[in-house]
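Task: sequence design from structure.
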């Protein structure tokens, strides 16, 4: 039940973003919906129809080559997106400047795609086409093929609808990507910190006492110095990172510190 609720909410958000923000400003963001925006802007062809015309042949081909179990959720999501594109036409278009349209259209589209992805489905388009191409040309990764397809669609939009909307569309693509990350990974990103120091034992104990986070010691040897050192691995919230760095540098000014983003944590982090 939650799976289908996620898909329904996702395609609805996408449809509102496309109908109310992106299409009125001719913002082409790639994929089947990008082609749909171009065709509706040029000849008034409904985006819902274009979405079906592009995806149905891809879905039939994917079913033959990969199997129905692979495409069934994408088939449902594609049909629901076309339905949502029609139903949300009744929502008035937002009369705003193109910058706000690019941002808010990207937020809605990204949130919608993220919800669909969380349900284990896609909305077809360049994702599905890339998987089919990859089957015949396995030396090219799916992500690289998707990138090439989306760049081609956005470039086509620039030639057909103008360079200015295409430049704003790049902003939308960036917003979409970031919002998808938030939906899939959460907003409270953590940080994995690697601290290499000869005083790692002291730093580790202070992390537990002051920062109140668990830590892990890892033995290591410097390649240049050929000396034994300690490495402390600790995962902290983004709000604690400045305090942690100050603590480590206060104990060992020469400590080598690496900070990485953490998208997902399993276990008793909180």
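Answer:
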């Amino acid at each position: 039940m939650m799976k289908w609720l996620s898909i329904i909410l996702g395609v609805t958000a996408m449809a509102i973003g496309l109908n109310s923000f992106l299409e009125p400003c001719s913002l082409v963001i790639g994929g089947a919906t990008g082609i749909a925006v171009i065709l509706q802007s040029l000849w008034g062809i409904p985006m819902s129809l274009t979405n079906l015309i592009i995806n149905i042949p891809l879905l039939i081909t994917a079913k033959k080559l990969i199997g129905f179990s692979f495409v069934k959720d994408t088939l449902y999501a594609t049909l629901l997106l076309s339905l949502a594109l029609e139903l949300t036409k009744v929502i008035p278009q937002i009369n705003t400047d193109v910058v706000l349209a690019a941002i808010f259209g990207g937020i809605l589209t990204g949130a919608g795609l993220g919800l669909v992805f969380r349900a284990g489905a896609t909305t077809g388009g360049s994702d599905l086409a890339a998987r089919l191409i990859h089957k015949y040309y396995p030396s090219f990764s799916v992500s690289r093929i998707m990138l090439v397809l989306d760049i081609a669609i956005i470039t086509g939009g620039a030639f057909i609808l103008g360079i200015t909307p295409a430049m704003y569309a790049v902003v939308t693509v960036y917003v979409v990507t970031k919002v998808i990350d938030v939906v899939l990974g959460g907003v409270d990103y953590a940080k994995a910190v690697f601290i290499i120091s000869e005083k790692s034992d002291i730093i580790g104990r202070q992390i537990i006492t002051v920062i109140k986070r668990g830590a892990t010691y890892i033995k290591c040897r410097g390649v240049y110095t050929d000396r034994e050192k300690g490495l402390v691995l600790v995962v902290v919230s983004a709000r604690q990172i400045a305090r942690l760095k100050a603590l480590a540098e206060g104990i060992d000014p020469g400590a080598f510190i690496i900070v990485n983003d953490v998208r997902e944590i399993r276990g008793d982090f909180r």
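Residues 190-262 form a domain with the Alpha-Beta Plaits fold (CATH 3.30.70.120).
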